[in-house]
Fold these 3 entries.
Entry 1:
Amino acid sequence: MAASRFDLGRYVPVRDRIRAFYKEFPTGSIRTEPVRLEDGLVLFKASVYRDPHDPAPTTGWAHERVGADAAEFGRFFERCETAAVGRALANRNLAGGRRPSREEMEKVVQRRTTPSEPVGRIRALLAVAPLPVARRRRIEEKLRSGLTGQAAHELEAYLLALTAPKRARK
């Protein structure tokens, strides 16, 4: 994907989503938790509560892999947490019209993500994910027909969440 195909100005930064959330829900809260951290991979869950007694918080999940660059190691954890918060707020309809946050799209543009890179990881996760046969077939069909970089990233996050150890999933 060429960087010129994205107009980053059309994507809302997570900080703006957070402001909109607290404006609409002044007694609400945003809670995050790392669900998995191993071998250069972090998986985060964010929960958005409209008020202190919200029985059904909105959630968002994100994952990040650390690159070979040692300077990047300190930022990948923070980027993952920010992405999870952005997705939870998007699920709460605070995305400003577009689901991916500006930060997520900047990452796509910066890395020029190729869909073939995570396909091997997706296939490995698919082999162990507890999925109904029909859903597994739909995912396999998507892999055969091709995925955008963003779709591959989201599918990998979904499968990581499904395969996370039960003690980590709450």
Entry 2:
Amino acid sequence: MSSESITICLTNPKSPTNVGGVLRAAGCFGASNILYTGNRYNIAKKHSTDTQNVAEYLNLQHVSCFLEHKPKDIPLICVDLVEGAVPLPDFEHPEQAYYVFGPEDGSLRQEVIDQADHVVYMPTKGSLNLAASVNVLLYDRTSKNNSIDKSNELIRKSRDVNNRLKIRP
């Protein structure tokens, strides 16, 4: 799966901690675009927690409307607790995806849900926070991908300098 084909859209995020967590997830799982609406994050972003400096190489863009930026050939996938939605474990991710998440303190607008190609929810007791939801969705997408790198080289490149652990025979 190409990283250029994954866009994460955040509806009026308010917490710099959550957006920092989304940036880290996007970097770890290979998303290349994050779009966000509203002004709450613009006010709070000076407190950003982008610990891997993902914003330097990932497209993080403030937009007024996600739908105006969505390519016609990429499916719109809404992720929220919506009656009639498909549970995430049963969902087959398309190769290209335009994922839209609701705000931390609300839901997606019905007009956005009505335009979705797919609506997905995470079967949890209660709602996850925004960063946790993006992490779970991107992990689910990766875990269902049969062409993921399962090598020790990936482990070596991904871990920090203090981790040199190995399983001993």
Entry 3:
Amino acid sequence: MDSFPHLRWAGAVALAALITSHAQVSAEPSRCDRVLAGLGTKLADATCTESPDLTTANPATTPPNNSIPTLPPFAFTPQTDRDTIAPDPPHRTPITGPVPGVQINGRMADDPQGQARILIRMPDNWNGRLVVAGAPGTRSEFNGDFAWSDYVVQKGYAYVAQNKGVLNFTISNAADPLACRLNPSSPVFVHFFDNDPGQPFTRWAIFMAEAARLGQSALRIQHGRLPRYVYAVGTSNGGYQVRRAVESYPQLFDGGVDWEGTFVDADMPNLLSTLPPAILNFPDYAASGFNPASTAARNILAAGYPPDLVNTQTSPPTSFWQTHYLQFWEVTMCQWQKRLDPSYDTYGAGLGNYIYVNRLSRSDVGKNLADFRTSGRIHRPLVTVVGTMDALLPIDTNARAYARRVAEAAHDDGDKAPAYRLYEIQNGNHIETFKLQFPQLEFIQPHALQAFDLLVGAVEHHTKLPPSQCIPRGGRIEGSPAQPGHCRSLLVP
């Protein structure tokens, strides 16, 4: 006999309700499902992860090199890329705890070349702001994981990065008309994807803007609203992307921090006019025993390069210029020449013998540079952070040249011109880890991150950016600097 039928019925109803509720919860799409569905056909080959930690303390945050099986080796090198612009591990951004959120990796589906990649990180504790990162060299969308992402996601910013619409390189050979040798004495040749047809450097600015649009769309789907502010950050060629972002897309960006950006112009100086003298003269300088008084050394200095540093503690001695000669000068010149002046005989005539002004009447190199030049007419606040010892993009022919261009445009625009600042880091150089070989050098990253915070304060709270200045060794950007304007010397003890 059932003494409590009403209780049994109530229990059955409750159990049924629980089962129904569980089924409804299970049927609801996850956050990743919603975002990917909302982005729809804008992304291809996309993966989404509800990550327990968006910082690099989580090994899954940055995928392994060569982890896209459809691509050849060296086309996709995220682990290498994030090491390239960041200091050595003890000097990177401290990670104080996990940052849970959503991470999306994929391709921009409307890229006809099929190479434009994007990374989106959206912290659960989103602060309502978005940071969009450029890419140096031919690096992947993971290039800023140490340099930028770890810093901003811990502050609650969403972070989006892209690869300028192009993959890195693949191993090739000397018979390939678009191949570049890795260094002047190397038998190894590589083929940069950005020298292929359909990959003009004019695409770089376009994909910076498209990354901002996709990041905003993802945030609206995920959090139900657009970001209040969007900031551009980037290093080297990524710094160029930042400059173009505030010049050409003010509707998408509220300001930017350009870390040693590449100066692009058809007029000299430019990369094609300054690299050849260094390439040409370095062998004679090395043959002189790194004699700073040699004619070759004087020729390199006259081209705008900072003084050399010679480490006599190694056997044989190593030279700061030598590291650039072997790792950057020739291969960078080759890459740009193949893209911008392909009719030049790279290794027959010799890259050291390339004379830019002579090529203007023999090729379209001037037009090709003009097509993606930086005008200096910024429409949003911009900060440039650069080292005086930059031996890849020397400060006089790059950062200061761009600052002069901004000043010219500001003179024309009068009071309407947004704020621009140039912060010169005494003894800073283009590659942070070179400080391990040459302790006279200084890191730039801490100053780039401070500049970012100062920019945010200026944009959001109308605080005045500190004036352009030289940051002494061991110093910081100051409101009342001891050395306003340019550093007096490129190298100090």
